[in-house]
Amino acid sequence: MSQPPTPETGVPTCYRHPGRESHIRCQRCGRPICPDCMRDAAVGFHCPECLAEGKRSTRSGRTAFGGLRPTNAGVTSFAIIGINVVVWLAILVTGGNGSRLLDLLGLRAKGFCDLGNGLINVTVGQAVCTAHGATWVPGVSDGAWWQLITSAFTHVAPLHIAFNMFALYVLGPQLELIVGRARFIALYLLSALAASALVYWAAPEYQATVGASGAIFGLMGALLVVALKLRTDVQGILVWIGINFLLTVSVSGISWQGHLGGFVGGLVIGGIIVLAPRGPRRTAYQVVGMVAVGLVIAVAIALRTAALT
Known about the structure:
The protein is mostly helical. The protein has two domains: about 1-60, no CATH class; about 75-309, Rhomboid-like fold, CATH 1.20.1540. The chain has helices spanning about 50-55, 75-95, 100-105, 125-130, 145-150, 160-180, 180-200, 215-230, 235-250, 255-275, 280-309; strands at about 25, 30-35, 40, 45, 110-115, 120, 135. A three-stranded antiparallel β-sheet has the order 6-5-7. It has a two-stranded antiparallel ribbon with strand order 1-2. Strands 3-4 form a two-stranded antiparallel ribbon. Helix 7 packs across helix 8. The protein is elongated, with a radius of gyration of 29 Å. The model has no long low-confidence stretch (mean pLDDT about 90).
């Protein structure tokens, strides 16, 4: 409703400042507004009340599965790539395969005493080992729990990190755009932990496992679930997954445990994200589901630790 002209002047006045003449009207409600009350809009000017109402009624952009739509879907993937590259360079400059950082960050079920010259002792503990001047190489069951996640950011071979980071560069932005940044980060980290849990259970106890491959396989699994949910063509995804699993079982030195654990984790977490029912509680269902996955992984790790100790 427009502000009527004053009887004295016949000129419209600002609805918020009756003593001020106004020849500009709000583009939404039509009321006269003075220069102090004018707010820039896409078309013309709005009054303060209409501007506030517009902000309240405009919802933030959301992805198809409830996450906030990122303005730049590559930021998280590039940040993860940056962390991996920094860790890789640090290992290279501190000795490569002989780096102490590699001993600390790589995933190993049980620790051992490094006597030097390729000799190890697995029968003594850390105190005895260091008391005799040898180097203790820690494992998860001995308290190096951080290896469960740091191993997913650790590489030595140039081809290893190059392949993993290229896969992350291809898959990461797509998934982040589809599910949102917070859900993508949760997916990546939980997939990495699921991979580490299976490595912890099934890999040789004193063997070190490193690499982001488990998390990458988790992204593949989640992307497959998303494609099935959206009823898109999954042939290309299945071919890529098949090739990577074929390489896993045919090339020596590749951790099938990490790849399988990460892939299963990605399938489960992806399912939680895309199958959560629509509505105001969708985020709550997704959070509860992912917390439950985290608890299952934690219980598996605890049981394995108890068995080894």
